[in-house]
Task: inverse folding
């Protein structure tokens, strides 16, 4: 394995863990605020998912939202890994950008309001 490939692997692993941590923290807040999430959610797509799920069964919307967060996080990390393999510069840029966004999101969730 070349020096650049090893460096890309380390960057990928660190960023993937940050992204997973951000998703876990976001899900923690979703569960913590289940009762008010439908009213207070700022993301219109997430709000729609929660409202649609709650119409089916009480609080099912938060469970569906959390499931989708896990599945989409897995898919995004997989896509970044594929990009790093095929187009390393684009893949590394994408995964670093996502990790930075997740760090921002964790601060936003913690200090918002």
Result:
């Amino acid at each position: 394995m070349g020096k650049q490939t090893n460096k890309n692997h380390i960057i990928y692993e660190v960023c993937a863990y940050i992204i997973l941590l951000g998703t876990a923290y976001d899900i923690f807040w979703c569960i913590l605020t289940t009762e008010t999430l439908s009213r207070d959610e700022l993301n219109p797509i997430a709000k729609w998912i929660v409202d649609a799920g709650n119409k089916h069964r009480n609080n099912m919307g938060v469970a569906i939202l959390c499931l989708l967060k896990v599945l989409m996080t897995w898919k995004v990390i997989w896509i970044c890994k594929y990009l790093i393999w095929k187009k390393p510069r684009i893949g590394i840029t994408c995964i670093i950008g996502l990790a930075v966004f997740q760090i921002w999101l964790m601060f936003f969730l913690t200090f918002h309001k």
